[in-house]
């Protein structure tokens, strides 16, 4: 309880005001305008950040344009792959094997090769 009464006695005297600041420009050395300097620094930092994003955005656009031709190449290669798979599955067929062997000039072991000259088709 004593602390409460002691605090009320300390504020009984007149209060002093701080000295007023002059509103005009200061004399002497040049005055730095920190608000303006802060805006300039912020603008420069934002410009550097924007410039650092230029190359990745350019790469993104180039990649996007190239993806169209890559899709076309992919479709073409898929068609070729399907054709080769069909040929591979048909290669095991005995009729296809015999036809390819004859086309290359081979004969079955129990056959005799004959060459007939003078035929015109």
Based on secondary structure, the structural category is mainly alpha
Provide a count of the helices: 4
Low-confidence stretches: none
Order of helices and strands: HHHH
Beta-strand share of residues: under 5%
Q: Mind describing the biggest β-sheet? A: none
Q: So what's the oligomer here?
A: single chain
Structural overview:
By secondary structure, this protein is mainly alpha-helical. Helices cover 63% and strands 0% of the residues. The chain has helices spanning 2-10, 34-52, 54-91, 94-103. The longest helix is centred in the middle third of the chain and has 38 residues, at 54-91. 0% of the residues are buried. The model has no long low-confidence stretch (mean pLDDT 82).
In short:
By secondary structure, the protein is mainly alpha-helical.
Summarize the SSE layout with pairings:
Elements: H1 2-10, H2 34-52, H3 54-91, H4 94-103
From the structure above, extract its key features.
4 helices, mainly alpha, 121 residues, 63% helix, single chain
């Amino acid at each position: 309880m004593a602390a409460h009464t002691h605090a009320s006695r300390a504020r009984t005297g007149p209060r002093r005001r701080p000295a007023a600041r002059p509103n005009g420009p200061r004399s002497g050395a040049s005055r730095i305008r920190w608000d303006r300097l802060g805006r300039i620094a912020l603008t420069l930092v934002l410009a550097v950040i924007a410039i650092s994003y230029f190359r990745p955005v350019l790469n993104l656009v180039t990649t996007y344009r190239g993806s169209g031709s890559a899709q076309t190449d992919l479709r073409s290669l898929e068609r070729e792959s399907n054709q080769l798979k069909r040929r591979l599955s048909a290669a095991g067929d005995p009729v296809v094997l015999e036809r390819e062997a004859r086309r290359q000039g081979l004969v079955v072991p129990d056959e005799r090769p004959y060459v007939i000259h003078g035929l015109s088709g």
